[in-house]
């Protein structure tokens, strides 16, 4: 292999006998295929948290995103649908397989958030849960005999559901995103956007972006994490479209001879996957097709590393392993 040129045949390799050859393309770009095979065998984890008060269609939207029954209600929880007295954390894991690729999807729901008369510090249980997952990963990582593959329960993405009021963000929305944007990738979405006219929706989106900028709230994808101009140009378009105005539905209707997911109204069917009706397709492509791996990398390289550095520098944190306690001390 010289000058980066791949060859189709390497003579002299194979069984002893002189005439055998190993056929097939050989080049350094074959490492991509090797990585793909290893990833397909191992599979990967993706953990998504959904936050917002009751009635915004959080579970329905997640079911629509992954075209599977992955919400907590689908898993037999909360038969009476009572509002919890405090914010609870409910996590459900499913293995989704498509095209030979396995993904362990964990949906973390937060029933009770924003549903109380007094919502002071109601984000604390959520912040605690996120940090507990970082702590769990860190403890596994610093073990002397650590696992070959550490289970990843860290929250890679938090979908924050904004009520379609058409006015402005609630104080609870602002405080939540202020506190949590430092520790997790937040993606704001406007729920049930079919309750607004197109003009109201665009005006509301513009007002929300202005408020997020005014209060210094960063949401994913953050400007400082753009690696190059290509990433910046792509992410700028996404940032201009945020917050995504979405509609979720797990019901199908017949429209122009096709079965489509949608919400039936007196005026017709709101098609979930039609870009002219809502931005669900844009959110799905962004979340799954183009940025899923980046969400995982930002979680590991930015949010987790920030937590790890703080914990290891903290006086009451994890103490580094002494060299005297290892067999390498005699080297």
UniProtKB/TrEMBL annotation:
It is found in: Cytoplasm. It comes from the Eukaryota. Residues 42-314 form the Septin-type G domain. Keywords: Cytoplasm, GTP-binding, Nucleotide-binding. The keyword 4Fe-4S does not apply. GO terms for cellular component: cytoplasm. One of its GO terms (molecular function) is GTP binding. Pfam families: Septin (PF00735). Signal peptide: none annotated. PROSITE patterns: G_SEPTIN (PS51719). SUPFAM superfamilies: P-loop containing nucleoside triphosphate hydrolases. Coiled coil: none annotated. Belongs to the TRAFAC class TrmE-Era-EngA-EngB-Septin-like GTPase superfamily. Septin GTPase family. This is Neuronal-specific septin-3. It comes from Hucho hucho (huchen).
């Amino acid at each position: 292999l010289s000058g980066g040129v791949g060859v189709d045949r390497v003579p002299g390799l194979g069984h002893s006998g002189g005439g055998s050859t190993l056929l097939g393309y050989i080049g350094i770009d074959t490492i991509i295929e090797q990585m793909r095979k290893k990833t397909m065998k191992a599979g990967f984890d993706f953990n998504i948290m959904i936050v917002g008060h009751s009635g915004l269609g959080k579970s329905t939207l997640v079911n629509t995103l992954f075209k599977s029954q992955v919400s907590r209600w689908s898993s037999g929880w909360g038969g009476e649908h009572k509002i919890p007295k405090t914010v609870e954390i409910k996590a459900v894991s499913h293995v989704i397989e498509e095209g030979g690729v396995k993904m362990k999807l964990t949906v973390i729901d937060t029933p009770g958030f924003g549903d109380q008369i007094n919502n002071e510090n109601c984000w604390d249980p959520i912040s605690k849960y996120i940090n507990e997952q970082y702590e769990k990963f860190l403890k596994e990582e610093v073990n002397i005999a650590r696992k070959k593959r550490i289970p990843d329960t860290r929250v890679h993405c938090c979908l924050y559901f904004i009520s379609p009021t058409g006015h402005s963000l609630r104080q609870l929305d602002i405080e939540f995103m202020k506190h949590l944007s430092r520790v997790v990738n937040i993606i704001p979405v406007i729920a049930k956007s079919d309750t607004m006219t197109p003009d109201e929706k665009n005006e509301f989106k513009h007002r929300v972006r202005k408020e997020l900028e005014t209060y210094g709230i960063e949401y994913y994808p953050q400007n400082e994490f753009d690696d190059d101009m290509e990433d910046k140009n792509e992410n700028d378009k996404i940032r201009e479209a945020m917050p995504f105005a979405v509609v979720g539905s797990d019901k199908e209707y017949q429209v122009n001879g096709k079965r489509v997911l949608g919400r039936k109204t007196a005026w017709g069917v709101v098609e979930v996957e039609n870009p002219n009706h809502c931005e669900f397709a844009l959110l799905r492509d962004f979340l799954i097709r183009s940025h899923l791996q980046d969400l995982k990398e930002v979680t590991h390289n930015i949010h987790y590393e920030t937590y790890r550095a703080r914990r290891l520098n903290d006086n009451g944190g994890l103490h580094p392993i002494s060299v005297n306690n290892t067999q390498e001390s005699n080297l």
